[in-house]
Amino acid sequence: MTKAVYPGSFDPLTFGHLDIVERCVRLFDRVVVSILTNPAKEALFSVEERCDMIDKAVRKRFPNVEVDVFHGLLVDYAREKDAQVIVRGIRAVTDYEYEFQMALMNRRLAPGIETVFMMPAEHYSYLSSRLVKEIASLGGSVEGLVPPQVEKRLKKKFRKS
Ligand code: ADP
Fold it and tell me: Which CATH architecture has domain 3-125?
C-alpha cells in the first residue's frame, strides 16, 4: 500500500490544495493531508478550523484521504504514519529553490522517504493562501479560488475584525 503525506499550513484551504489532493488520490492508496502547527507562525484560522474546512472538502469526495495535525520534523511524522512519500505542490519557479532544499534535506534525514512534486492546473498556479487572505481582508472576492464554505468563513473572520 502506498501512503503519502501532504503537509502544509492550509491557512486556509484553497482550490490549489484540492487540485493537488485530487492528483494524489489517483497515485496513492492513502493520502494524509497534514496541518503543520507552528507556534512561531501566526495563522488566521485555528488548527481546528483548518481541520474542519479540509475535512468538509474531502470527506465525501475522497474516502481514502484523512486529515491530521503534526508538529516537529516532517520526516519523523511521515515515518510515524508509515508513509513512503511526501507530496509538495509546485506553483512557479519561485517555489522551486526552497522546495529543492527541503526535499534534499529530508532525503538526508530519511533516505527511505521520497518527495514527489506535483503541479496544479495552470489557473491555480498563481493561487496561494496568503493572497486569498489578503484579498479577503480588503473586501475582494475570492469566489472560485476557495470552496464556498471557506469563502463564508473568510467573510465572517474579516467582518469581525
Ligand atoms: P501556501 O501558504 O503557500 O499557500 P501551504 O503551506 O498551505 O501554502 O502549502 C501546502 C502545500 O501546498 C505546499 O506544497 C504548497 O506548495 C502547495 N500549494 C499551495 N498552494 C498551491 C497551489 N495553488 N497549487 C499547487 N500547490 C499549492
Answer: 3-Layer(aba) Sandwich (3.40)
